[in-house]
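Justification of computing resources. Each target in the renewal requires a structure prediction run like the one illustrated here; the chain below, 235 residues long, is used simply to show the kind of job we budget for.
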Amino acid sequence: MQKDTKNFMIDGKNMQFDSVSFKALFTSGRKKAGMSVLEYETELGEALSVSSNAIHNWRFGMNGPSDLETIKQLAECLDISDYMLLLKDGKENMIMQISERQKDSLKRIYDAVIEYLDKFQQSDGFNNYWHELCRQGIEPKNVEDMLYESVETEQHKVELVLSKEYIEIHKLPVYSQLEEFVYDDLCETYNGKLSYAYRFEAPVEKIDGTRDTLTTDEDYTLALKKINDILEAYM
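Resulting structure tokens:
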């Protein structure tokens, strides 16, 4: 629970700094930089003209940046293209009254999603799977199909957990949200991104008309934010 986080009005919406997303991006950035936690906190602090202790507090939700410009600068330091990845809806959510069995069901689904997202991030968006198949001497024309099969198997594990929990939570509004997330959002993390052309030839045109791609870390953070937002009112 963030204790002292400022609200920002953006396009008519009340937004807050999202310490969960920041912590995930911080960890990823630190590993890429090959730094210790303290070293990376210090580097970010110096870049933003704040103390390393301030960065530490942001990571653990004690507070957040005091102005939107700092959040934008932080996004640049973390090498993410959209600073909104560091924000979340600022309205307070009422905790839904559900049984302990239902909470356990939601936790099992959440755990399955986190396991999937961890494999997604650790394999660089399943890119490592591609290279592993190539190292096994698989014919290039067959690699793409085998890669999709492998990744769809990972997603099916999450779908199976969701299906198993139907009896306990299908009457809750959250079940339909989770269905949409599992069958649409998780699929979107890799859909169309496992092809040879996507990986090695041409960037994909985004909605705004620019030709670029989200990084694995950005896809990971978007999905993590979405599942956290869905379950926030229940856990």
